[in-house]
Each structure stands twice: as C-alpha cells, then as structure tokens.
Amino acid sequence: MVKRRSWLGLALALSFLPGVAQAQENVVVFAAASLKNALDEIAATWSKDTGKSAPKISYGASPTLAKQIEQGAPADLFISADLDWMDYVAAKNLIKADTRFNLLGNKIVLIAPKDSKTATVAIKGADLAKALNGGRLSMANVDSVPAGKYGKAALEKLGAWNDVKDQIAQAENARAALLLVARGEAPLGIVYSTDSAAEPGVRIVATFPEDSHPPIIYPAALTRDSRNSDAKAFLDFLRSAKARTSFEKQGFTVLVRSASAT
C-alpha cells in the first residue's frame, strides 16, 4: 500500500507542475520489450491519423510492468508477452476485463552473432551444449520473463536443458538477451523471431518447434484505473488493418481480425 500511495502521490504532485498537465493527456502504454519496433510505428501512425499526441510507451519485461501496475504506476494499457502476467493483473482486478483480447503470436529462435562461423545448430539433447563450446547461452530470465520461460520449456521438451542450465546468461528481458549476442558477449541466445528481425547484428541458426513450448500469445487490455478518453481508441487501433501491417512487417502473427481504422 505504501508503494501504491507513493506512485499516486508522485503523479498528483507532478500534475501541478508547469507543462505536466498536458503531458498527462497522452495515452500511457506498458508493453513487452519485444514489441518496441512495431508499437513505435503504430503509435506514430495513430498520432498522424488522429492529430493527437503519440502514446507514451514504457517497454520492459512483462513481470516488471505487471508489478509496476500493481504498485499504482499510471498506465492506461498493458500488453504482456504471455497470458500468465495478464492473468496476474486480472486476478488483482487491475484491468478492465471486458477490454482484454489476445492480440499477437510469436516464435522463439536460436541466434548467433552475424559474423559467427556457426551455420546451423541442432537443438536436441546434448547438441546445443556442444555448439556452445563452453560459452554462455543468452536468455531472458527463465523463471519470470515470458521469453525465458518459453525458451526453458522448449529446452526441457527437447532434452537439452540439463546440459545447458549451468551456462545460461540471464537477461532482464528479451531485447537485453538479444543485445548480449549482437555484441558478441554470448555465442548463442534464445529470443523471439521478431527480435532477431529487428537486430542486424544477429542471425537465426535454429527455430524451435511450436509444439516444444506453450503457445506464445500477447494479450492486451485497458487498466482498471485508466481515465484517458483516448485509451480505448488506441486499444481499438491495435486491431486495425494499419496496425496489422506494422505487426506483420516485424514478423508477428496477428490473432485478431482487422477492424476499420479510426
């Protein structure tokens, strides 16, 4: 409760500062880090089409964002990279349940630095450990971050987890795991296919079978405390044909039928 009050107190205090009241009118979106390229483009398109200020988007690991919402952070929309963290905020009555829908799907892949000599990697059994050759496997946190949880589940299903579990370099989120490989700090990493497409410094050396892990689903919803009249309009815009184009360009699978853009 103390943390919640501190968030709300800060928001109230800031609202009285010059220039901040106008900033508070922006739609505030909390979104999984893997959405950055697509969502930045969609926000700019929505702003251009409506003449309204572009939404302010805070990107991060889904559990971090969910916990911030729980603590009273002023967000209008939440887009998680898995169902579990949306279920978490829903169980605490922190979203408007009737606005929730499954927006996107994704895949996970194994990547290597672009200039690596590694061509393809077998990902079953002990083959992945051999490919690492003593190096580290970059992954998002395997206990809480969706990309890490999906990756761990796939490695367990394929019989590779026990051979590599002591060689994991865990990162805060999927984009951070991506950077470790792009910078050459890890020889291999597990990220979303959309992350690999957004980073020219890496290339895919294996794709995990879809049946090796739970379905990758990104749900979206308005938060319970959202009072911004434009928030629902932006949430609806995520279903539009224009948004679909941006999502698909980055490699996402759109799970909702396109509606007319507003």
Describe the structure.
This protein has 262 residues and is of the alpha/beta class. It contains twelve helices and eleven strands. The protein folds into two domains: 2-105 and 217-254, D-Maltodextrin-Binding Protein, domain 2 (3-Layer(aba) Sandwich), CATH 3.40.190.10; 108-212, D-Maltodextrin-Binding Protein, domain 2. β1 (28-32), α3 (36-50) and β2 (56-60) form a beta-alpha-beta unit. α4 (62-70) runs parallel beside α5. Mean pLDDT is 90; it is low at 1-23. The radius of gyration is 19 Å and the shape is globular. The chain has helices at 2-14, 20-23, 36-50, 62-70, 83-91, 127-132, 146-157, 161-164, 174-182, 193-198, 231-237, 241-249; strands at residues 28-32, 56-60, 77-79, 101-105, 108-113, 137-140, 168-171, 188-192, 202-207, 217-222, 253-254. A six-stranded mixed β-sheet has the order 2-1-3-10-4-11. Helices cover 39% and strands 19% of the residues. The longest helix is centred in the N-terminal third of the chain and has 15 residues, at 36-50.
Contiguous runs where pLDDT drops below 50 for at least 5 residues? 1-23
Mean pLDDT: 90
Percent in strands: 15-25%
Q: Structurally, how many domains make up the residues?
A: 2
Output the CATH homologous superfamily of the largest domain. Periplasmic binding protein-like II
**What is the overall shape?**
globular
Q: How far is it from the N-terminal to the C-terminal residue, by CA?
A: 39 Å
CATH class placement of the largest domain: Alpha Beta
Classification by helices and strands: alpha/beta
- Give the total of beta strands: 11
The strands making up the biggest β-sheet line up spatially as 2-1-3-10-4-11
Tell me the major beta sheet: 6 strands, mixed
Tell me the CATH architecture of the largest domain.
3-Layer(aba) Sandwich
Helix content: 25-40%
Might you state the CATH topology name of the largest domain?
Answer: D-Maltodextrin-Binding Protein, domain 2
The radius of gyration is 19 Å
- SSE order, one letter for each helix or strand: HHEHEHEHEEHEHHEHEHEEHHE
Count of runs of 4 or more consecutive helical residues: 12
